[in-house]
Sequence to fold (268 residues):
Amino acid sequence: MERPTPFPELNSVLHDLVTSVQTALGDDFVGAYLQGSFAVGDFDRHSDVDFVIAVSGELSSDQVSALQAIHRRVFALRSPWAQHLEGSYFPVATLRNSDMRGKQLWYLDHGSQTLVRSDHCNTLVVQCVLRDHGLVLAGPNLASLIDPISVGAFRQEVLETIRNWGQQILDEPQPYRNRFYQGFIVLSYCRMLHDLVEGTPGSKRAGAAWAKETLDPVWSDLIDRAWNGRPDPAVSVREPADPSDFASTLEFVKLIVRESERYADALY
Fold:
């Protein structure tokens, strides 16, 4: 693994994580990769570090226990990057077969030191980013592990996420009423509409810039505040959202849902 990112401290954390996981899993380790903003090349020092580790099959309870100990130790490293890791362990059969999307995997949430079962990373979006842009930390090229994904299937998943998550946010806004999630929602909905239109996965930065150019300028300040609020998520998640910005965010979600439906009607 040679300097996968421009940040030496992060490279050291990733080397520690990958070599430790390789030792713990032995022959069941297949590969380790970066996806997300570091893969698409639109990262900065505030970006999450989204990783995927491919394994030969389902992890045993002993293997999970060993990985839990590794993640607790890595989280305690002095580098702040160690607290910004997020990713999942994919059996190769699940990684290859898009029909298995939604299956729960062992997942490390951003800011967490404990693996839990979640379908968070098991999406066509993640598989597309990995196959087309994934950075190899160890193991084979990702094109050998992931079958091609059609643009139509990709767009359909993005459309479903815009609809379903939007309905969840609008039905139960209270869990999202903090400064972190308020900005995260705005940037995520910019990116998702951009991905839907382009038919390929992009970054939050690209989505935000595109939304400011494409949507009514009335939304530009909300998008800028969301972008500028990205630093220190561990602090912002404990702080209440600005009431006016949160109300505007709910209206923004409604707008993006409508725009996505309009685009889908024209496309199909």
User: Anything to note?
Assistant: The mean pLDDT is 94. The longest strand covers residues 29-35. The beta strands are 29-35, 49-55, 85-91, 105-108, 115-118, 135-138. The domain at 8-144 is CATH 3.30.460.10 (Beta Polymerase; domain 2).
